[in-house]
Amino acid sequence: MTSDSISAVTSRTEFRDGVRACLRQALETGAREIFMIDPTFADWPLNEPAVVDTIASWAGTGRSLTLMAHRFEEFPRRHMRFVEWRRNWSHVVRCRADEDLEEQQIPTLLFVPGLVCLRMVDNVEYRGTLSGTATDLATGKETVDALLQRSSEAFPITALGL
Known about the structure:
The chain has helices spanning about 10-30, 50-60, 75-80, 80-90, 135-150; strands spanning about 5-10, 35, 65-70, 95, 110, 115-120, 125-130, 150-155. By secondary structure, it is an alpha+beta fold. Strands 1-7-6-5-2-3-4-8 form an eight-stranded mixed sheet, sandwiched between helices. A hairpin with a 4-residue loop joins strand 6 and strand 7.
């Protein structure tokens, strides 16, 4: 993906391929931050060994991966590999939620600042864009900033109980 290109996403497969491509691009360019936002992360390929390996290769000193959801209730069941990897990399991964918003108000977005933005505008029909244009990157940053301001820490590494 070049900095001025836009690709249409028209299927679940293309969305998942877009996630993989964005993560590889973040790894290859040494991006410092990755933001992944989705109401539930149900359709994300975060349980695939290759995806977890890409994130693991990317993670390191000074890197930050932020996930934001409506809630993370189903996340451990759907993405066991990612959850297991995260246990050792909690200093890199932040999880945030905003349960005050309705689930449909939380967009599906993968944003790597200055590099790429994968945005779904219709999660039922799988319609969206994969873009590196300045306009889409600016819109992605605004969306992330607004959501992070409203959200709070969520999905702790371990569940504490008495």
